Amino acid sequence: MRTRFAPSPTGFLHIGNLRTAFFAWLMARKTNGSFALRIEDTDRAREVTGAVESILRVLAWAGMKPDEGVMPDDAGNIVEKGSHGPYIQSKRFDLYRTYADQLLKDGHAYRCFCTPERLDEMRKKQEKLRQAPMYDRTCLELDPAEVEKRVAAGEKHVLRLKVPREETIAYEDKIYGPLSFKGHTVDDQVLLKSDGFPTYHLANVVDDHLMEIDLVIRGEEWLSSTPKHLILFKAFGWRPPQYAHVPLLLNPDRSKLSKRQGDVAAEDFIKKGYLPEALMNFLALLGWNPGTEQELFTITELIESFTLERIHKSGAVFDLKKLDWIQGQWMRKIPAQDFADRIRPLVTVKYPDAANDSKFLQKAALIQERITFFPEAPDMLGFFYTEPTATMELIANPKQKVTEADVPKILGILKTAVESIDEKKWTKDAIVTAIDAALASSGLKKGQLLWVLRASLTCRAYSPGAYEVAEILGREKALLRLKKIGI
Ligand code: GLU
Hints:
By secondary structure, the protein is α/β, with parallel strands linked by helices.
């Protein structure tokens, strides 16, 4: 299948558009097809500098290399590749004009001289009468000779699509199923603006045809444009592509996911430190349901299992908690050495001793089970590189069933247990055995002992397990921290 992603460079790439692009990319991969990147910059006034670069950066980060179209070359310059170019609409304006002329000649389009003021008045009247806002076709009635004269005189005008009002436009959406629109509800869309520039609708249809796109995947917000596009395909005598409109992304309160509710720019998610594996896994599950309990998917698994049939039409709730859970799961999957290599420079900035620490791999492994984002690492490992002192406030913790009165006794037991282990036999097993032995005669619960040990050694409420930390810290340091507590 030939699919495409056709963003307009009018600002940041919305996270929902990244998902749309991903679905189109997945369909191309699944069918050994081609994924094209086309830049829809017909609206020059809304263009934002740097938007194309940003789109390409995000796609590259996500691992979605376009097979054709606009892309970065090895040196990072933006180039176009492929046999269906140019892929930037502003380079195709002459082409759109030629096709618009054809529509005019064939009677599928007409010239409209109505001024913005007149259109405004018309709209106001329609509003008052509670009619749908629609061009009233004043200029369709004009005498052809008069039209000629006005054109020759250089009067400003646009070109409008002549919608067959008596027809019903029906098609089968790959997600919404069979849909039909009455012709009389479709507005006579402007195709060429008065400056001769094409509108999105004309350029989009001409390009999807000339670029031989088989499947258009786009956001639900374009659903109402599709009848206009289908009318254009028919007017040109072209076979339209298949359309799949993907559901909106919603906030947990089911309102439309928008900028006001937090970050929706794809690049903000990258900046926050999400792994591409995690973000793309999460996005795939927004609107698509694998039909099984599986939640973690590699890209290869997604290419295999993804189908349009399993995308539902109702809005997909953007659940950040789920995203963070998926992120955590993907952090655990990183090979231990790679994980240590990724966090070591971050930890070293704060704790230079980490640079030559022979136990770094072991320490990193302890937090890999708990971390969500790489930048959390320095803080999580800080207790290994500093000499913190635990406070009573931390240690006496009702959730751990440890009261202030218990603490001195527990600390005493722990010190004796640690001291009973020979320096040379300091292993996790030895620590477990010593603590078990101490526990037997204490009348305390194991959880109480382990909490005090862990809190005293790490001085943190959330930290790796007590035995593992004690083992890595070593006998001397462990003892020092237990004794240091000023109680
Ligand atoms: N340029 C449109 C956008 O920015 C593309 C819509 C489509 O895929 O047809 O979303």
